[in-house]
Write a structure and sequence with these properties.
By secondary structure, this protein is an alpha+beta fold. It is built from 7 helices and 11 strands. The chain has a 5-stranded antiparallel sheet. A 4-stranded antiparallel sheet has the order 3-4-5-9, with helices on one face. The model has no long low-confidence stretch (mean pLDDT 97). It binds a DNA duplex through helix 6.
Length: 271
Amino acid sequence: MPELPEVQTVVNELKTSVTFQWIKSVDVLRESIVVNRIKEFRKNVRSRQIKAVQRIGKYIVFTLDDKLWMVAHLKMTGKFIVKNKNTTRHAHDRVVFQLGTNNKLIFNDSRCFGRIELTTDLHNLPGIKKLGWDPWDDNLTPENFKRKIEHRKIPIKTLLLDQTIISGIGNIYASEILFDSMLNPTTSAQVLTKKQISRLISSTRSILRSALKYNGTSISDYRRVDEKKGSFQNFLKVYGKSERLCPICESNIVKIRQSQRSTFYCPNCQQ
DNA sequence: AGCGGAACCTGTCGGC
DNA sequence: TGCCGACAGGTTCCGC
């Protein structure tokens, strides 16, 4: 499900629904979701107050104390849902936090790729430590970007999925961003000109900002904290549109396979 | 170091 | 109807 716009939507909604709430207890229904030893996790989360919620890359970070954070990653199908505490258990509920109010915070994940980890050293968590620029980082300039990728031979589409370069882009928005910047997804990263990179960066920002405005893209699994859908799926121009027509030139959108993921693009507009 | 492919786990959909 | 393979908003690990 989740790329930056989806994760940021969830974080925004968690901020209003669970900040300052106390965690009374935790039920771990699927142990593989929790990275820490379960006993230790339950003990250290119990009786903590959620002081803040933030997004770092595609990670959701709950601040529980000065030196204690609960870090979650939704991977493909993870969701955070807030419901009344009397709600019955639902299929794929994996971790349930009983809150001090009438609510519970549920981590639901059909595929069980998602992870929740308690840490005392947030910025040295392996996943977080390696993250590249946030899309809106002032240091993400065409010059810096070019320098960072000038020895990378992989296709630009594949490079956009590399969280150690820019963090937050996933498979849907990579295709949309490349269409918006009129770049061919198969182009080797190292041959891009400064001008093309400049376009790529502004498209990245505008596509992600727009997707965030519509609360993300709900094609199949992704849901908001209140289980509503995002609506950016109504504005996708190429992702999932193979055999449909390009909105600019009306030639056929094509689907190809790059490093085991689908890519959609217009071979005519994206040279 | 960088790259491609397998692995993690579960559900759905299309073809035969 | 039923089975089987392909595929799914992600990341990590392994071998070359």
